[in-house]
Amino acid sequence: MAQPVAIVFVHGIHTFAPGYHAGMQAAIEARLPKRLRDYVTFRSVFWAERVRQRQKEYLDAVAKKNLFPVTPYRSLVVQGLGDAAAYQKTKSFRNSSYYEIQADVRAVLESLDAENLPNRPLIFIGHSLGCHIVSSFIWDVNTIKNWDETRLVQEGEEIREFAVHLKNGSPFRRLDTLAGLVMMGSNMPLFTFTFGPGRILPITSSRDPSDPPAFPGKDLPADMRSRARWLNYYSRNDLLGYPLKPLNDAYANEPLLDDIEVASEGWFLRGVGRLSQPLVAHQAHTGYWNNRRVVRGAAELITSLATVGEPAPKRRFAFWRRPEEELAAAAS
User: Fold this and answer.
1) How far apart are CA 7 and CA 25, in angstroms?
2) Got the DSSP string for 160-218?
């Protein structure tokens, strides 16, 4: 019998409205076996309203004064740097975009938790800064839910309330059923340079050996844990998206993590190369949402988790292949 699965999208750059995920969701659903579609629930986090209007107001002021042209590429840079600057962890919960955005993620998870499927596996699909938001949210939840009373008294009221909320919550709310990660154009490496590679751990590890790592979720049954995957899609032409394994040995040796190169800019633009680098880079970073290989990989991961107890579904293509290898396999 099929297993229910929850999917949560978390956007990044170049997103202005709540329905940003609709096209990718429809494409994934079309690739799912029909018998599974009623078992898969999709939700999305929309946090752009926290920062996008401020960015627009600044660029409007620049344009009004005719200081320089406000091109789509300029907007992309302002969003890329502006989103990252806004999502900085602070000591206080108040007036903090970091905690406001995490609250947006938490609200979506709680709406799913209200459906009373406490052991339902969860998959996050993140893009751009959304990948860092997902990773930091998962890390923070896993850290806070393991605090003891001695640690809790050192924190402010808001974070103590959140810790109690987690400790008294379902496995789903505590991310103990986290079973899959799909990342597109991740800029997570850019947030690690302050600390250096020796202090960076993937969410498949934990700093305290007595605490279980955040991923895969500790309450997943063994057969579902064996199918958990972390898929990180990037393009060589995406200036804001990067592979994760080069970060350090912990990432490089993580068997659940696959860095997967795709031509998110499209094969035509990939061939254009340096002649139109800004256009190629822009399309590469925003093109993951409708990239066939990304959609196929996400659908295969969902199918694999939804059919636990059945033989693993056969794949026509291996979703970890480089684009060139996949084309060669298709032609053979």
Assistant:
1) 9
2) HHHHHHHHTS-TTTTTTTEEEEEEES--GGGGSTTT-GGG---TTS-SSTTSPPSSS-T
In terms of Cβ atoms closer than 10 Å to its own Cβ (0-12, 13-18, 19+), residue 236 is middle
Residue 31, H or E segment: helix 22-31
Task: Determine the Cα–Cα distance for residues 249 and 246; give it in Å rounded to an integer.
Answer: 8
**Buried b / exposed e along 290-325 (16+ C-beta atoms within 10 A):** ebebbbbbbbbbbbbbbbbeeeeeeeebebebebee
Domain boundaries, the chain: 5-331
The closest of 53, 45, 105, 44 to 79, measured between CA atoms, is: 53
- d(CA 184, CA 131) in angstroms, rounded, equals 7
- Measure the CA–CA gap between 277 and 161, rounded to whole angstroms: 48
Mind listing the pLDDT tens digit for each residue in 76-95? 788 878 888 888 887 666 66
State how far the Cα of 240 lies from the Cα of 172, in Å rounded to an integer.
31
The region of weakest confidence among 12-16, 93-97, 134-138 is 93-97
Backbone angles phi, psi at 118, to 5 degrees: -65, -20
**pLDDT by residue (tens digit) across 110-135?**
999 999 999 999 999 999 999 999 99
d(C-alpha 207, C-alpha 205), whole Å: 7
pTM for the whole thing?
0.88
